[in-house]
Amino acid sequence: MIQVCLNGQRGADGGAVVPLSPEALADSAAEAVAAGATDIHVHPKTPCGQDSLSPRVLAPTLQAIRARVPVPVGVTTGAWAEPDPVARLDRVRSWTVLPDHASVNWHEEGAEDVAAALMERGVGVEAGIWSGTDGAARFAASPLGPRVLRVLAEVTDPSARTAEATARALLADLGPAFGRPVLLHGEDAGAWPVLRLAGRLGLATRIGLEDTLTLPDGERALSNARLVTEGLIQYGRKPECRAEGPRR
């Protein structure tokens, strides 16, 4: 599995190639799936380019993407989009259109309540375990651990020189992770070394403009599709062209 992370917290300052509107996100998602992505992670944005958990923002983004691609679509529930844990929980409970899955950062206050609310609504939970936090220890003690869809092992070390070692340490901290599938990924200059490690270990991974704006050689990435194509090569699998089509 290779997930494409379409935009992340980046705004217009991330460059014109970063998709922000529902229509731009749908176009980018379709291109990325055609390039070989099998799952989508997106940060729905307000017209001003801010991450939002509002149902009025979430619904049109999900509907636009689903009209173009036949793969699962997930969203963030990051605390930066709604800092108040109670308000964040209320937002999740107010969603009128549900994603297939949502990432929950286990080191954030209120994470387990948000995860439980998502599960109650039938939304898969990606347990985001960040390096450099107590997320792995919290997750190991969580009664919800065996019920998550998968674990996102998120290497926040942006250095190409040290990111692989940080990734290995994070995986060791995670241990068996309740037997749940693990998706390993990095960010910035650490994105490509961590993706290659995921390939060697046979783990799911992700790539996209949320995680990096550049290709392995330092060239600016012009699209999420270009990152997916290169990601499959770096992972060790030949890209396969997919026909764009409606969601099934």
How would you write the strand order of the largest sheet?
1-2-3-4-5-6-7-8
- Helix and strand content put the structural class at alpha/beta
From the alpha-carbon coordinates, what is the Rg to the nearest angstrom? 17 Å
Mean pLDDT: 94
Which consecutive residue ranges, at least 5 long each, have pLDDT under 50?
239-248
What is the N-to-C succession of helices and strands? EHEHEHEHEHEHEHEH
Distance between the termini: 19 Å
What does this molecule look like?
α1 packs parallel to α8. The longest helix is centred in the N-terminal third of the chain and has 14 residues, at 22-35. The chain has 248 residues and is α/β, with parallel strands linked by helices. Strands 1-2-3-4-5-6-7-8 form an 8-stranded parallel β-barrel, surrounded by 6 helices. It is built from 8 helices and 8 strands. α2 (55-66) links the parallel β2 and β3 (73-76). It is globular, with a radius of gyration of 17 Å. It has helices at 22-35, 55-66, 85-94, 111-120, 135-140, 163-174, 191-201, 224-235, and strands at 2-5, 39-42, 73-76, 101-105, 124-130, 150-154, 182-185, 204-207.
